[in-house]
Design a protein that fits this description.
Layout lengths: L3 E6 L4 H12 L4 E8 L7 E4 L2 E4 L1 E2 L10 E4 L3 H13 L3 E4 L28 E3 L3 H17 L1 E10 L6 H12 L30 H13 L6 E8 L6 E9 L5 H9 L4 E3 L11 H4 L5 E9 L5 E8 L3 H19 L2
Parallel strand pairs: 1-2, 1-6, 2-5, 6-7, 7-8, 9-10, 12-13
Antiparallel strand pairs: 3-4, 9-11, 11-14, 13-14
Helix pairs in contact: 1-8, 3-5, 3-8
Length: 333
């Protein structure tokens, strides 16, 4: 079996560590492994497959000799170093938003648009976590009934904002001195409709990511989408209440049948038995969980659904590793 030399930039963060976990669990054929990070993390010890690795300083010089480099250290780092890694021959899989909307960069969810992995110029973008789980759930429905419009409200875990956000929630819950305040408000026992920065039109960058990235991934530039993104005090996954209007009539049982056989989807839809998707069930899982399926009687061909997925796994690390797996598979054909 061919082994692939891997670099992970941002290896000490929540997503970087999760990428390592996913690589090991999925038995990805890792050859040489280099863990890279910024100055403050140099020398950190991280175990992978029974071996201890030391985090190295990220520089242009060390970005040579890799087959894949996973970037998860934020936009500025990706903007500076991802093109260098690509120029030196690696396939970069970038988890930041830096390249997602560039025409020359594929934005890939393997269950939705796997053919795009071979259309790269050295960089493939990993979509936003909330976008990934939505398009996995919607693509099989779109293929059958054609979606006209999407209204989505998200309920997003603090893990989506990084380790400092998790620390803030835990400190507030336990009423101990706060290590660092990540959010503008208390998050424990609270929620707020504010993820990322606000624009003058009142929408946040997170909301526009969902709109623009969904259109690009599903190759539907005119698709009508609107989003409201809310941060909630949960750890384990993001929830999304999605309202869809189809062009064609549908039957609920057929919707359930389509979703039950869709790649990467688990149907949990027995509300009378209190069975529906929840972050605590999705935590540390790679699937997208769908339930609370019901008609929207206020519009023709309307459907309501509830979608949950682990934002650090399928919403980030797992999707990134799946992109690499899909690339290897298609290159070998």
């Amino acid at each position: 079996m061919k082994l692939y030399d891997i670099g992970i930039v941002g290896s000490t963060g929540l997503v970087g560590r999760k990428i390592l976990e996913v690589l090991e669990q999925r038995k990805f054929p890792v050859g040489k492994l280099h863990l890279l990070a910024t100055e403050k993390s140099i020398g950190t010890q991280i175990d992978f497959k029974g071996k201890t690795y030391f985090v190295e300083k990220l520089t242009a010089d060390v970005l040579s000799g890799f087959d894949f480099v996973f970037f998860s250290a934020g936009g500025p780092v990706s903007k500076e170093f991802a093109p260098i890694a690509a120029q030196k021959g690696a396939l970069v899989i970038d988890n930041s938003s830096t390249f997602r909307m560039e025409d020359w960069v594929p934005l890939v969810v393997p269950e939705v648009n796997p053919h795009k992995v071979l259309k790269h110029k050295g960089i493939i973008a990993n979509p936003n976590c909330s976008t990934i789980q939505m398009v996995v759930a919607l693509k099989p429905l779109h293929d059958k009934w054609k979606i006209k419009r999407i209204i989505v409200s998200t309920y997003q875990s603090v893990t989506g904002a990084g380790q400092y956000a998790v620390d803030q929630l835990e400190d507030e819950v336990h009423k101990v001195p706060m290590r660092k305040q990540k959010f503008p408000h208390q998050i424990a026992y609270n929620c707020f409709p504010h993820i990322d920065i606000f624009y003058e039109d009142g929408y946040t960058r997170e909301e526009l990511k969902m709109v623009n990235e969904t259109r690009k991934i599903m190759e539907e530039p005119a698709l009508k989408i609107t989003a409201t993104c809310v941060r909630i005090p949960s750890i384990g996954g993001h929830g999304e209440a999605i309202n869809i209007e189809f062009e064609k009539p549908f039957e609920l049982e057929e919707v359930k049948k389509v979703l039950s056989s869709a790649p990467g989807v688990v149907l949990q839809d027995d509300p009378m038995q209190n069975i529906y998707p929840m972050p605590i069930w999705a935590h540390n899982r790679d699937e997208v969980f769908v339930g609370r399926l019901r008609r929207d009687e206020t519009i023709k061909n309307g459907l309501n659904m509830w979608v949950v997925s682990d934002n650090l796994r399928k919403g980030a690390a797992t999707n990134a590793v799946q992109i690499a797996e899909e690339y290897i598979l298609r290159k070998s054909v």
